[in-house]
Write a structure and sequence with these properties.
The complex is a heterodimer of chains A (122) and B (110).
Chain A: E1 3-7, E2 10-12, E3 18-25, E4 34-39, E5 45-51, E6 58-60, E7 68-73, E8 78-83, E9 92-101, E10 107-112, E11 116-120
Parallel strand pairs in A: 2-11
Antiparallel strand pairs in A: 1-3, 3-8, 4-5, 4-9, 5-6, 7-8, 9-10, 9-11
Chain B: E1 9-12, E2 18-23, E3 35-39, E4 46-49, E5 63-68, E6 71-76, E7 85-93, E8 98-101, E9 105-109
Parallel strand pairs in B: 1-9
Antiparallel strand pairs in B: 2-6, 3-4, 3-7, 5-6, 7-8, 7-9
The chains are: A mainly beta (122), B mainly beta (110).
C-alpha cells in the first residue's frame, strides 16, 4: 500500500522558517512527480508546490514564490518543503501528495499523506 | 475566490441519491478532466473519482461522476452515514497553468 508520511510541522513565529519532510514507501518514488497541498484551519484545499520526478522542474503557487522551495532526494524516497518568511496566512495542515497524470497529461493527486500542522504565531 | 465553485453544503437522508455540482469555465472544467476528493472528518483527503468518471480501486460504485459543458457532478446513490464529510472537485486551469480546487461541499446525512 502506498504510504506518504509527513513530518517537520510545528509552531513558528512570523518571519520564521520551517522545513517539512515527506517519506514515501511502496512505490517507485523516482517515477513520480510529487506535490504539496495545504489546508488552512476550517478552509479548503490549496495547491502549494510541485516537483517533477527528477527534481528538474519545480512549480509554486503565486503566494509561495520566492519564499518556499521544494526539493527531493530520490535515493532516500523523500521530498522536502523549505518555508521561509512565514506569515500568519501560511498556517495550515500541509499534505504530501503523489501526482499522477490523466490521459491529457494533466496532473491529479492520487495519494495523500496524513498531513503535518504548521502554526504561525508570535 | 476559486475559479471553480461548489455549493458549500448538501444533505440527504439515508438511501437517498445526492448530487454535488462543480461549476467552472471554459479554461478549466470546460476543457479538462475533473477529479473528486473525499475528506472524512479528521482525516486527510482521499481520491474518490479521477478523470471525471473513473473510480479508484476500492471506491464503491455508489459514487459516480459526470460532466456537461463547464459543470461536473458527483453523485452518491444509496447515501450512508459514513459518507458524511467534505467533498472537493479539482481540475487543471489552462489560464492559470496550475491545478485548482473547488471550495468544497460539506455533505450531511440527516
Amino acid at each position: 500500500e502506498v504510504q506518504l508520511v509527513e513530518s517537520g510541522g510545528g509552531q513558528v513565529k512570523p518571519g520564521g522558517s520551517l522545513r517539512l519532510s515527506c517519506v514515501v514507501s511502496d512505490f517507485t518514488f523516482s517515477n513520480y512527480s510529487m506535490a504539496w497541498v495545504r489546508q488552512a484551519p476550517g478552509k479548503g484545499l490549496e495547491w502549494v508546490s510541485s516537483i517533477s520526478d527528477t527534481g528538474s522542474f519545480r512549480f509554486y503557487g503565486s503566494s509561495m514564490k520566492g519564499r518556499f522551495s521544494t526539493s527531493r532526494d530520490n535515493a532516500r524516497n523523500s521530498m522536502f518543503l523549505q518555508m521561509n518568511g512565514l506569515r500568519a496566512e501560511d498556517a495550515a495542515v500541509y499534505y504530501c501528495t503523489r501526482w499522477s497524470y490523466d490521459i491529457r497529461g494533466y496532473p491529479y493527486f492520487d495519494n495523500w499523506g496524513q498531513g503535518t500542522l504548521v502554526t504561525v504565531s508570535s | 475566490q476559486s475559479v471553480v465553485t461548489q455549493p458549500p453544503s448538501a444533505s440527504g437522508t439515508p438511501g437517498q441519491r445526492l448530487t454535488i455540482t462543480c461549476s467552472g469555465g471554459r479554461l478549466n472544467v470546460g476543457v479538462n478532466f475533473v477529479h473528486w476528493y473525499q475528506q472524512l472528518p479528521g482525516t486527510a483527503p482521499k481520491l474518490l473519482m479521477y478523470m471525471t468518471d473513473h473510480r479508484p480501486s476500492g471506491v464503491p460504485d455508489r459514487f459516480s461522476g459526470s460532466k456537461s459543458g463547464t459543470s461536473a457532478s458527483l453523485a452518491i446513490s444509496g447515501l450512508r452515514s459514513e459518507d458524511e464529510g467534505d467533498y472537493y472537485c479539482a481540475t487543471w486551469d489552462d489560464g492559470l497553468s496550475r491545478p485548482v480546487f473547488g471550495g468544497g461541499t460539506k455533505v450531511t446525512v440527516l
